[in-house]
Amino acid sequence: xxxxxxxxxxxxxxxxxxxxxxxxxxxxxxxxxxxxxxxxxxxxxxxxxxxxxxxxxxxxxxxxxxxxxxxxxxxxxxxxxxxxxxxxxxxxxxxxxxxxxxxxxxxxxxxxxxxxxxxxxxxxxxxxxxxxxxxxxxxxxxxxxxxxxxxxxxxxxxxxxxxxxxxxxxxxxxxxxxxxxxxxxxxxxxxxxxxxxxxxxxxxxxxxxxxxxxxxxxxxxxxxxxxxxxxxxxxxxxxxxxxxxxxxxxxxxxxxxxxxxxxxxxxxxxxxxxxxxxxxxxxxxxxxxxxxxxxxxxxxxxxxxxxxxxxxxxxxxxxxxxxxxxxxxxxxxxxxxxxxxxxxxxxxxxxxxxxxxxxxxxxxxxxxxxxxxxxxxxxxxxxxxxxxxxxxxxxxxxxxxxxxxxxxxxxxxxxxxxxxxxxxxxxxxxxxxxxxxxxxxxxxxxxxxxxxxxxxxxxxxxxxxxxxxxxxxxxxxxxxxxxxxxxxxxxxxx
Length: 494
Prior knowledge:
Elements: E1 5-11, H1 12-22, E2 31-40, E3 44-53, E4 60-63, E5 65-68, H2 70-82, E6 86-92, H3 103-120, E7 124-129, E8 135-144, E9 147-152, E10 155-159, E11 163-167, H4 182-188, H5 190-198, E12 200-204, H6 208-219, E13 224-228, H7 246-250, H8 255-266, E14 273-277, H9 284-290, E15 295-298, H10 303-315, E16 320-330, E17 334-345, H11 360-367, H12 374-378, H13 393-412, E18 423-426, E19 431-432, H14 466-480, H15 484-493
Parallel strand pairs: 1-3, 1-10, 6-7, 12-13, 12-15, 13-14, 15-16
Antiparallel strand pairs: 2-3, 2-6, 4-5, 7-8, 8-9, 10-11, 16-17, 17-18, 18-19
């Protein structure tokens, strides 16, 4: 069984409101409560902060330190239990950076852990803000009757127009500067590079765009990249798949297996890990693996996968960097048009459905298995997206570049600019549109009621994925039919 790591995620608007309350002009400490919902990945357990419960008159005292009255705690517990949520306790310290706990802090949180757990059936979450907006977080897990254990969070992330993460250096030490990254570090400094390296990046779809994105991140110093794709390398992929060769197609290697092997050679980080997850994001294992990530790249071309990523971006507070290519050609005129775009979905940003990146009706059709039925596909009009497969490596390079630049802008926020909007480029005639900063449509569920609901959202977005199961079975059968020398060679390479 994999031992869980822990983290906290806070929507950007709530983060700003909490810090405005906690960081006082007079330098004194302050406190408040909040509700939270769980987000459980394969390896990571995350508390998603959902709403603040600010103190009313007479419910807390500020005296250099801060303390709360019993009635404030009772009100907060009741609000959390009524909402079906857990309880989180926030307080501030006067220093910058990640914050440890004083003896009084430990006594206060540990002393209220049992009441919070008993009322909500979820652990008490503790959060401490530094005066520079940095956070530390912890779970108070029940060990037995009246016995609670503090588990420090590896990270606390704030997800808004900018993605900011505070890491616990004692759990996830910053990488030492390397000569291999000297030019990269010179662009934005060693501190930002140390943070960038520790982001766990998920790439959903190891096709032409996903391969190039992964290569760029590995060479930029990422410590860990999770690759999620069920598909197999085929001969028809070789004009677009970086690092894929005829041998990979002949030996029925999965796209993620092939890419992970290559990234381990390309990576500039001494601690690099590439996870090869041979599942669809629509399957529970692939979905939960995605929840272990801090950022996700959407490099998929099917509506069901995009809809799931859209759901994750808001409900689980993991920004999704999405892109796409549409190429049109005909026999007489050759290339007619090639358009591509890149944008980010997440709190404060327009969602993928409102951006018309997928059709909800087609999601239902795909979940019903119609897209794997040749008769259904044959009945679609000739210009339907599922009958179009034109693309070239050069176009994929451009889309991948756009997506990686979106990531860097969201994290680095040069000159305070973290959101450059949705970008669209037209290869014919070589023009780029003005960036779009539109909000979601009125009553969009993703930007409103689903934000930070996580596993309590009430929606099941995964299901049986027949195409993924068939692909894995066929790949396994083809590998079994390989000559024993080829199988031994592949085993030795692994």
